[in-house]
Amino acid sequence: MRHALVRGVSPAMNRCELTHCTREPIDIERAETQHRAYLTALEESGCRVHVLPAVPELPDCVFIEDTAVAVGATAVMTRPGAASRRPEVDAVADALRDCLEIVWIVPPATLDGGDVLCVGRTLFVGASGRTNSAGVAQLRSLVAPRGYNVVSVPVTGCLHLKSAVTAVADHVLLVQERWVDGDAFSGCERIEVDPREPGAANGLWIGDKILFPAAYPYTAERLRRRGLRVRVVDVSEFAKAEGAVTCCSLIWDDSSAAGR
Ligand code: CIR
Question: What pLDDT is recorded for position 257?
Fold first, then answer.
């Protein structure tokens, strides 16, 4: 069974962290409607969806991906690079505890889940404004005994590694080469985003399809031409908060957690 943990939209999302985007008003009601449609898309992609309530004091809590990294039967609880987001983590650990073994990133390390891209047994980790070298080192020592290796990848011009590159099929990556050097991902096929859509590298590959933002039809067409199935979701309000489709869920499989 595949599981997705999601968290509701904070009524304070207009006070979210912003790094590369200019602040624009977020319509909270519309964000909630988009969030419900996203949950439906997760369910229809075969996930059992678990919902944590939003916390009004935590503007970015919907972006649950940043709080943990599921690695096989283990959840690595992060220490987000933005101090305002650190109080998000404890409730996520409590929600995961029954399903996954919990381990922690601790100070002075910082790590955002949006910086971790898993391809097979390799975790590519963005050296971004949110994830520091101690975060990369701690992640490496936590996952090495579990059979995973960690490769640090420089990221410039965007928030997270997964703003610049995501997996859209087994060893197939969707890449924005302006923000990350595609040569870092040896052994993977690369599809470049359409040049008219610089922010289009974030897709969520689940099972046989990719959840993909409605804002990027040209890149969606590239994915379809490559023979991949795309399900479009409108995440316009989350994009104003510098989020996209991977960041609104934490996904893990029972099979990888079995036998722990
Ligand atoms: C932040 O800056 O932390 C949030 N406003 C957006 C986080 C998006 N997270 C992600 O893409 N993994």
Answer: 60
Q: What is the pLDDT of residues 9-61, one digit of tens each?
A: 999 999 999 999 999 999 999 999 999 999 999 999 999 999 999 999 999 99
233, pLDDT greater than 60 = yes
Mutate to test the pocket of ligand 1, among 247, 248, 250, 251 (most ligand atoms within 8 A of CB): 247
Side-chain half-sphere CA neighbours of 36 within 13 A:
5
Q: Which of 198, 258, 243, 259 is nearest to 82 (CA)?
A: 243
User: How is the chain split into domains, by residue range?
Assistant: 2-257
Contact 78, 125 (CB under 8 A): no
- Rounded distance between C-alpha atoms, residue 178 and residue 164, angstroms: 8
- Using alpha carbons only, what angle is made at residue 252 by residues 120 and 233, rounded to the nearest 5 degrees? 95
Classify domain 2-257 at the CATH superfamily level: L-arginine/glycine Amidinotransferase; Chain A (3.75.10.10)
> Which residue of 79, 112, 159 sits with most ligand 1 atoms within 8 Å of its CB, as the best mutation to test the pocket?
159
Question: Does residue 256 surpass a pLDDT of 80?
Answer: no
**H helix or E strand, kind and range, residue 237:** helix 236-239
Full-model pTM:
0.97
The band of 255, judged by pLDDT with boundaries at 50, 70 and 90, is confident
| HEC readout, 4-32 | EEEECCCCCHHHCCCCCCCCCCCCHHHHH
Q: Are 64 and 51 in contact (CB under 8 A)?
A: no
- For the stretch 168-195, what's the b/e string if a residue is b when 16 or more beta carbons lie within 10 angstroms of its beta carbon? bbeebbbbbeebbebebbeebeebbbee
46 φ/ψ angles, rounded to the nearest 5 degrees: 95, 10
